[in-house]
Fold this sequence. Notes:
The complex is a heterodimer of chains A (356) and B (364). With 356 residues, chain A is α/β, with parallel strands linked by helices. Chain A is built from 14 helices and 7 strands.
Amino acid sequence: MSLWVDKYRPRSLDELHYHPELSSRLRSLSASGDFPHILFYGPSGAGKKTRIMATLRELYGPGVEKLRIDQRVFVTPSNRKLDVNVVQSNYHIELTPSDVGMYDRVVIQDILKEIAQTQQVDLNAKQRFKVVIINEADALTRDAQAALRRTMEKYMNNMRLILCANSTSKIIAPIRSRCLLVRVAAPTDDEMTKVLQHVAKKERFGLPASASKSILASSQGNLRKALLVFEAMKMQKPDLTGDLEVAKPDWETYCAKIADSILQEQSAQKLLDVRGKIYELLSHCIPPTVVLKTISERIVDKVDDALKPQIVHWAAYYELRMRMGSKKIFHLEAYIAKVMTIYKQFNMIGYTDDYE
Amino acid sequence: MTTFAPKATGQLAVDPKFQPWVEKYRPKTIDDVSSQEHTVAVLKKALSSTNLPHMLFYGPPGTGKTSTILALARQLYGPDLFRARVLELNASDERGISVVREKIKTFARETPRHVGKSSDGKIYPSPPYKLIILDEADSMTQDAQSALRRIMETYSKITRFCLVCNYVTRIIEPLASRCSKFRFKPLAQNSTQARIEMIAQNEGVQAEDGVLNLILQLAGGDLRKAITYLQTAQRLHGAIEPPTPIFALSIHEISGVVPDDLITYLLSVMGVDKDQGIDLTLGTGGFEGVRTAVKRVGREGWSAGQVLEQIHDALIPLPTIPALPKSLAAMAIAECDKGLCEGGDEELQLLECCLRIKDAMTKH
């Protein structure tokens, strides 16, 4: 039994539920025989990967779905061994170089050269080039991105790149100017409802409007999340009626609790208390950025309008520091201390303007 | 099968139909290089006297740096000698200190052979030195760059170096001072226009009026970007049956430019009217209004960097905004851009920037 997310994932461009213009554009590109490098970008859960796989199918036929997973070993110039998981078919290869952190350049150099210098041997293949899919392209280091530049032009006849990223801001300009940028926007609420109803119909049950509404509210344009929530909900309450409580992930409730306790009392003791809770979250592998964003969102909802911009300002400020520094907890804690100060000041003297 | 086609020099023969136009229309001689008159003039002198200094080319992407040096090398050596005399290394090759010590040094050390006549019957200057092109040199490590210093001097009789980079500041001073520097400026619109029109004509591109101009405007002096846009648009429109002329909307879509109405909406929640300047009645949505707008940007997948750039372009030139709010807004935009470059979270950064601009607008 696979999850609904996988079970009802569209396989071809015709089955896609939304962005019809985009689908037709991808179709005409793959039919033209002269396929560019593509950079797909958009928020998570919008359907980037689904569209990439559908495009590949359009290019090569159903053969691309025969996947195998290899573990490849790369050796850095300093003789360090790197293990990278690679998913490939006869026609394409998919990898996430950012898994190996700062050594991603080695992976990119090695694998692209290898693909680029070998030609397609399968005479039945529809295209003469292979496709390399690079996931999380925005997490690549600058060096790795620089390594892509000339390769993209030089080996165009044997290879095409498909990059998948959340945003183009972190992709260097030379790469952007070599790719066709394809934006995959998150589906609108109507489009999401249509997809949910489609799934419900396939599973042979009706979807009450109230249920779909609460799913949409909790998923915020992330279709993958919506489908997962939907399935969980169906498990809990098979008839999908009455008071539907969308089960929030534990960490989210936990973050909300932290936010509440920050607003309850502002003291050194409380800070220590909160620190323990944040450690708890971090040790469960919740990314620190997500923790900070969730907490600040909750706080912003609860404080006076005059304070909101400041809370956001400091959130942005400490989030940035967190990225640049190496010890995440310091910056999270500093943020919380700052919020406590502002909040207390505001409550005592009724005014605070603390930006610097 | 083309798979078994005979090898062209160094590269496999490609069906020209599928070749990227960027490669297809790379200038063959340095006379073909668009604008950059100054650089071309100097290089032509060097070509006739066959005496070349070490060179450092720098400038923004898509201004013809790599094209110029490749064309120059081709004119100097001709197709036969090109492979033996020119070593091209770019960031996709390993370029740590070990490579500089081994590969570059070995190549630099070899004495060039005497040459006979070229196979295509033309006479090339074939000067008695080799050329090492280090493309994207700004991504070389400091150590590797320092290792180059001595090599450049020791073998300067038989080897010339050409460093190509975007940011001259990333090249260490001792290397930069050994080279004669050539700055490639962003291309002026009229000189790129001729090139784009030539390509459009050669490829039989049908475009509506003003589309070519729009491409050039969006590319902002980056000729490669302009050519890529043109080719992509042609692919999209050529694949439809029957082929339609390219229209402006698809160019907008390809280039990832945020539509004007989204920018207008963002400006309005910050209390700015696109034409009239500050209009605080628009920004009554308060904090929530800004947050909803920023969330929408994220949900539709626009890149925060692009949005920021367009907010800047729409906001800063407005003549009716007084100096103080405008300066504060410019500061907010600049800091947000820095934050984005350093890898800050897009939503937080953009939200903070918008809130600051909104606040700035009330201060006049």
